Structure prediction request, 277 residues.
Amino acid sequence: MKRIVRNRQYGLSWKGDYGPRILAKLEKHRQRVGTWNVDWNGGNHYEVYYENADTQTREAFAVSLIYRTCSCRLWDVCGVPCHHALVAITFEGKDPLDFIDDYFKKSTYMKAYEALLHPVRGLSYWEQRDLEELHPPPLRQAKGKRKTERIREPLEGRKKTKMSRIGRKMKCGICKQTGHNSRRCPLNPKEDCHNVGSKKRKTNPSKVAKQKAGGSSNHMVYTVCNPGKDNQLIVGRPVGKPRKYFNPRKFKEASSSQPRTEGNAPSQNPDSAIPTQ
Prediction:
């Protein structure tokens, strides 16, 4: 209610057919007319051009007063004649105010605020009804971490508080040189290593000592570093002895070949092929 009254009073204070903001924009375009020239085609179209003697270039735009358009598209977008159109309007000896869009006129502005809001009584005087109170739907909690930032548009740009990585120089942690990181460093031996076999595992020193003490053979996995180069190196590492897998067919054949005594059940140990007595 207050906003409608305030905007109506603001519109009534206009001295002309257009507001001060539109007149200020038109005056800004008028100051750029300067050294622009115009050529008339004999109809309703004009070619407004500017010749730069220093660079030997010619910049030209096509203006149509009957369609109220300019090839720079500023007049088409904002509705106020651009400085190219003002050159053609001045050449015709017409008033630039007549070429401003009707959307910015005082009469159009007053129509938007001609309707009034009527005052209402207080909440205590409202009619009470025995109806169920309406509540908003329950909020479903999505899985995962809760998002605290909105999704930005592709052309919106980055956050002003976040530092951009453009222009920053990468520094290697191995050779301390710029232009690459430690992963692409030529001094990093991990880049030239190709594992032959399973993935690399961390060996337990205590288990290795027990296996050596027991005399059990270890399963070796070999890694070739710098293949095809002069400093090629083959490194072997133990990963433990091979696992024994239970074969039910061999266990069944071994059990059937041995005589079974009454009262004694065969052993269910898969490692033993002979039943216990």
